[in-house]
Amino acid sequence: MAFKADKQTIDDLGIFTKNRENSVYTIFNKTLTNGGARILEEMFLYPLSEESKINERGMVIRYFQENSATFPFKSDLFDTIEYYLSNTDNRSRISAHEDNLERKFRSAVGTDTDYQLLHKGVISVIEMVKIANDFFKNLQSKGLSEYYKPQADAIFDIINSEGISCCLNEKNTKRLSYSQTAGYDQEFRYNSREQLLRLLTLIYHLDVYIAVACVSRERGYSFAKALPAGENIFNIENLYHPLIKNPISNSININNKNNMIFLTGANMAGKSTFMKAFGISAYLAHMGFPVPAASMEFSVQNGLFTTINLPDNINMGYSHFYAEVIRVKKVAESINRSKNLIVIFDELFRGTNVKDAYDATVAVTEAFAANKNCIFIISTHIIEAGETLRERCDNIYFINLPTVMEGSQPLYTFKIAEGITSDRHGMIIINNEGILEILKNVKKA
Fold first, then answer.
1. For the residues 390-414, what does the mean pLDDT come to?
2. Cα(148)–Cα(276) distance, rounded to whole angstroms?
3. Homologous superfamily of 225-444 in CATH?
4. 165, 252, 304, 338 from 294: Cα distances, Å
5. What confidence score (pLDDT) does residue 102 get?
6. Pick the CATH number of 31-219 from 3.30.420, 1.10.1420, 3.40.50, 1.10.10
7. Which residues are registered as beta bridge partners of 289?
8. What is the pLDDT, as a whole number, of residue 103?
């Protein structure tokens, strides 16, 4: 089963953005090849849901981080090779019988462009194979990771195959004779084409591993340990949002006894940021990527649903409240179909009056809490709802982001504390901004 995350979740967490700037994807998009960028995007689009595959990818990236390896190829080399291998038209096949005076004349005056492109493709393939051979032999001499060894062995098998290994001893890789080019072209484009395409894919994966390893090393990320599904364990130490400058970190421990987190706090206290940070780390962890935290272990989940920046839908005629109701319905249906989901709701039912919001928050949260197979994080301003839920549910962990008053100025700590907040600073902020005085002056005028 694939790990599920819908468009609302992807948008909420900033995994991608419209211009791909200031997104989680952009943090890791340091690949040097177009092929590597394609594979990186695919990894982001399709996180993993199998414990072994998650841990395996994480260990491969960790290996390259500890190895401090650098990608040994020039990026433009692969554009040439891809273009060369894409041409499988038999009419372009180089024939050794055409090495006549007319062809030599065309070559001398620079009009034999088709041959020159094929020659360049052959040279590029030889260069790639020789560099790959040297790079992986060097890795092998230092000791290959058991997790990366299958991929390295696959690369060696291709390099040492009969049709490709013949170029390893080629001395003159800048200029080949016509007959040499014809021989290599037959091997590369026709006899061994599928093997070379496979080699390209393995090298593109190498590009991704090294790029992600460099990001992890530079940013001080850690590798999460995936645990078997079902136990609802999520232990994260010093978690922070990767897109915020000078972030404040927090730790959270979740298990079957407290699989629902009920988060309270004033506006601007950091509730949304914490929930996004949790969601981002959960998403990256299921990709096998390093996470912005000191340490993390988690039970593998089947999907992630967030509702943080939910818009109304004018085209459908939906108010904000009705959009919230539809979203809750969709999540409820997903929970009925699949267990082991992470569900994050920021400010349930903010689009309706306080009385209905209270009743709906209590009813929906209590119903969610009855499901012990999922992890829930729900935030609200309605602290009375928390007091009611404390009496009704035994698996809710109540935390808050407190505000400290310095005179009449609120100071936000952004550090999690246990319990339900009693902070009510809305009118203080309004008075500090002098809004009422401005309106009184307008009335006088």
1. 88
2. 32
3. P-loop containing nucleotide triphosphate hydrolases (3.40.50.300)
4. 45, 12, 22, 31
5. 41
6. 1.10.1420
7. none
8. 44
